[in-house]
Amino acid sequence: MDSVAQRLSAVGAGAALELRGVTRLFGALAALTDVTITVRPGERRAVLGSNGAGKTTLFNCITGDFPPSSGTIRFFGEDVTHFPPYERIRRGLRRTYQISALFPGLTVQDNVYLACRGVSRGRFSFLRPGQNDALMHAADNLVQAVHLSAVKDQRVAELAHGQQRQLEIALALAGAPRFVLFDEPAAGLSPTERAELIEILTSLPAHIGYIIIEHDMDVALRVVESVTMMHNGRIFKEGLPQEIQSDPEVQELYLGGGHE
Amino acid sequence: MSLAHDAPVTVGRATKTQRPARTWPEINNPAAWAVAAILLIMPLIASSFFLIEIFATTLILGTMALSLMFLAGYGGMVSLMQLTIAGFSAYMVAVFGVSGNANISLGWPWWLAVPMALALATAFGTLGGALAVRTEGIYTIMITLAIGAAFYYFTNQNWAIFNGHTGINNVATPRFWGVNWRADIPFYYVVLAVAALCYFAVEYVSRAPFGLALQGVRDNPRRMAALGFNVNAHRVAAYAFASFVAALAGVLQVWNYRQISPGSVSVGACIDVLIIAVVGGITRPIGPYIGALIFVLLRTFALDFLVRLGLDGNRFRLLIGLGFLAIVFWSSDGVIGLWQRWRQHQRREVGRASGGGRHG
């Protein structure tokens, strides 16, 4: 028995993210049923599926926004199933939201600064950051990386939708992320903005893995190396992007058959 | 290890100079300097009635409302127990210090009784906050109002410590360095100093990581958790800070009236603090002081005004209520909001006039 448990935990230790039998119930409704996924460090994966397939619930379970009803979640080998969200974030997990979850009353710079502060010490500091504050520089650089320097002193409520989506990504990349969950980052973006998004995703350092939920196949399949297909709260298929794209069952279910 | 080092578009330190200095915004504001100067020379221009009954009282009430403004404006938590915390602090000064009720007061010197009162009141407010942060919105209002009401009835009925409905009278005020600090002019400066300290502390903290994070919690608590913040711990810490501010105001309050009784911590008084903060405006720390000035002026002079109109002078609350309704109706951000809108309007007018001149 002991050796089995040891071997199981050894398997978990090598993975960035390991879900075993994760189920999430909302009353009688099972939003997720027995989901088991293993993602390597640095791996980039798309989660596809129609509305209601359980993709966002999967993210919510991984980050702890909603704890799973049963099953275990390991993050870099550590069992985080019962951790509050902030403990998972401090360990290098990050996420973005499908509907931008920003701080509309604060400036762009302050939004990103908060993200940097959240994963470092001094969250309760009563001292204003000085001119040479390291986190302020980190925030400046992040703002620049997502092309928002021109609007960094504007309140987020005044930003255009595309800019808010970019800020959404910047918040998830603060500090030293090890694994990021992107929830439909391209939703509502113009073609130009999509190109910028793809550039941001593909230029992430190689050690940062991610899972991306994306309806736009052009975006999704250009930035991932593997695909998980979900249907009705279950894992339906896993494989390489080409395999999934050419799979007749998947085409029937999701791509509407006639997709080329 | 941060992304920025590997990001393709990083330009490094070039951004350093573009950042606006996070210093005191008020330093560049001539109106703020004028107000500060007037407040400092007030004893030269105001009679002792105005000095204490109007301005010192305004500053004390304003500081209580400031503690609510900090919680509501930055944290999105409407706490109706801020006056209760101030009142608890006032009671503790009377209980631990020297008063006319020798069988209750322990007779400690003020420099021991005051820190004790501040510590206990801060602990009281923090505990209340720890209860309140488990709720949101209207439930926060209800639970803090319940704490306020419970304290009011408790002080009414408890004779061993709070001396029931008579309260504690003849509370001693500090005298040292040969100065009677409750004499009108020294007391005014003590109140002014404490109010200024609280005002600037709130202003300063609002731009410090703690205050920014609190505003993040106000805007989107779920996202704050997803950025690594322990949202509830942050909220409780905000209650602790606000409680300390309220407790300071409570010490001034008991020194001002030299007595404390349940009437000072009634439910009506709790709601007055909310009215003061809302009338003044809860988005900026100056709001509560403006609200307190309006409240104190109305409370003091509305009676005469109403009598002159041939109405019952006791209906001064009617005026306060109507003023409250009018301000909330026309500006969700109190008097500050009205002022800001007027300023914007003026600027637009000026812009239109000068623009028209140039083109015409």
From TrEMBL, chain A:
<dbReference type="GO" id="GO:0005524">
    <property type="term" value="F:ATP binding"/>
</dbReference>
<dbReference type="Pfam" id="PF00005">
    <property type="entry name" value="ABC_tran"/>
</dbReference>
<dbReference type="InterPro" id="IPR051120">
    <property type="entry name" value="ABC_AA/LPS_Transport"/>
</dbReference>
<dbReference type="InterPro" id="IPR032823">
    <property type="entry name" value="BCA_ABC_TP_C"/>
</dbReference>
<protein>
    <submittedName>
        <fullName>Amino acid/amide ABC transporter ATP-binding protein 1 (HAAT family)</fullName>
    </submittedName>
</protein>
<feature type="domain" description="ABC transporter">
    <location>
        <begin position="17"/>
        <end position="257"/>
    </location>
</feature>
<dbReference type="GO" id="GO:0016887">
    <property type="term" value="F:ATP hydrolysis activity"/>
</dbReference>
<dbReference type="Pfam" id="PF12399">
    <property type="entry name" value="BCA_ABC_TP_C"/>
</dbReference>
<keyword id="KW-0067">ATP-binding</keyword>
<keyword id="KW-0547">Nucleotide-binding</keyword>
<dbReference type="GO" id="GO:1903805">
    <property type="term" value="P:L-valine import across plasma membrane"/>
</dbReference>
<dbReference type="GO" id="GO:0015188">
    <property type="term" value="F:L-isoleucine transmembrane transporter activity"/>
</dbReference>
<dbReference type="GO" id="GO:0042941">
    <property type="term" value="P:D-alanine transmembrane transport"/>
</dbReference>
<dbReference type="GO" id="GO:0005886">
    <property type="term" value="C:plasma membrane"/>
</dbReference>
<dbReference type="GO" id="GO:0015808">
    <property type="term" value="P:L-alanine transport"/>
</dbReference>
<keyword id="KW-0813">Transport</keyword>
<dbReference type="InterPro" id="IPR027417">
    <property type="entry name" value="P-loop_NTPase"/>
</dbReference>
<dbReference type="GO" id="GO:0015192">
    <property type="term" value="F:L-phenylalanine transmembrane transporter activity"/>
</dbReference>
<dbReference type="InterPro" id="IPR003593">
    <property type="entry name" value="AAA+_ATPase"/>
</dbReference>
<comment type="function">
    <text>Involved in beta-(1--&gt;2)glucan export. Transmembrane domains (TMD) form a pore in the inner membrane and the ATP-binding domain (NBD) is responsible for energy generation.</text>
</comment>
<dbReference type="InterPro" id="IPR003439">
    <property type="entry name" value="ABC_transporter-like_ATP-bd"/>
</dbReference>
<dbReference type="GO" id="GO:1903806">
    <property type="term" value="P:L-isoleucine import across plasma membrane"/>
</dbReference>
<dbReference type="GO" id="GO:0005304">
    <property type="term" value="F:L-valine transmembrane transporter activity"/>
</dbReference>
